[in-house]
Amino acid sequence: MIRLENIFKVYGSGETEVKAQNNVNLTIYQGEYCSIMGPSGSGKSTAMNIIGCLDRPTLGNYYLDNIDVAQIDNAQLAHIRNQKIGFVFQQFHLLRQLTALENVMLPMVYAGVKANERHQRATEALKRVGLEKRLNNKPTQLSGGQQQRVAIARAIVNRPVLLLADEPTGALDSHTTQEVLNIFGELNATGITVVMVTHEPEVARQTQRIVWFRDGEVLHSHLTPADLSQMVVS
C-alpha cells in the first residue's frame, strides 16, 4: 500500500540546511493500522505530509497503491488525494455555515459525484460514525467529539483506501478519545489502511504497529504496543 524508498526532504541550504527526512525507508501494507510517533522535530509530520501527497520528497520514491506519486504532476496528485486518501486532523476544519451533511458532501462535489448520490453517501457515512440524528446540525451545535466524527465521515465518504489521521484526539477528552479510536478500529476492520500520527502513548497502544521517528529517520519500524513503554521511558 505505502512504500517509501530512500526518501529525503531537505529545507534550506548550507548552514541552514535541515533534513526533515533523512533516507527514510518504510513499508505499510494494505489493511494495517499503524501509528507514527517520535519527539518534536523528529520528522513524523513531514512523513505524514509526504504519505498524504501534501508534500513532495526532495529525493526518493514514494509508491502509493503501486503508483510512484513522487513523479506525477500536481493535477494527478490532487486526483489521487481526492480518490484514494482520507484525512482527519486535530482541528476539525469543518465549515461553520454548513450542516454536518453538507460538510460531508463537500469532497464528493470535487470528485464529480451526482447530487442524489452525494446525499445518500454522506448520510450513510454519518450513520457509520453514529451521527444519523445530527445530519442537519451545524458545527456550533455539536460537541468536539461529534465534530471529529463528522470529520471522519467526510474523510471516508469518497471510499479511500488509506485514512491518515494527524493527532486526531489531541483536542478531545479521554472518554471522547476512546469513542473516536473505536471508530478508527471499526474502519480498519473493514479493510481501510489507517496511519495515525500521535504523541499520546495510550492512543498508539491501540494500533497494531508503531513506527518511531527520530532526527528525520525511522529508528524503529515495527514496535508493538508492549514495546512502547520502554521507548517512552527511554
UniProtKB/TrEMBL annotation:
GO molecular function: ATP binding
Record PANTHER family: ABC TRANSPORTER ABCH.1 (PTHR24220:SF86), IMPORT ATP-BINDING PROTEIN (PTHR24220)
InterPro entries assigned: AAA+_ATPase, ABC_transporter-like_ATP-bd, ABC_transporter-like_CS, ABC_transpr_LolD-like, MacB-like_ATP-bd, P-loop_NTPase
Highest taxon of source: Bacteria
SMART domains: AAA
Designated name of the protein: ABC transporter ATP-binding protein
Keywords: ATP-binding, Nucleotide-binding, Transport
CDD domains noted in UniProt: ABC_MJ0796_LolCDE_FtsE
Domain ABC transporter: residue ranges: 2-231
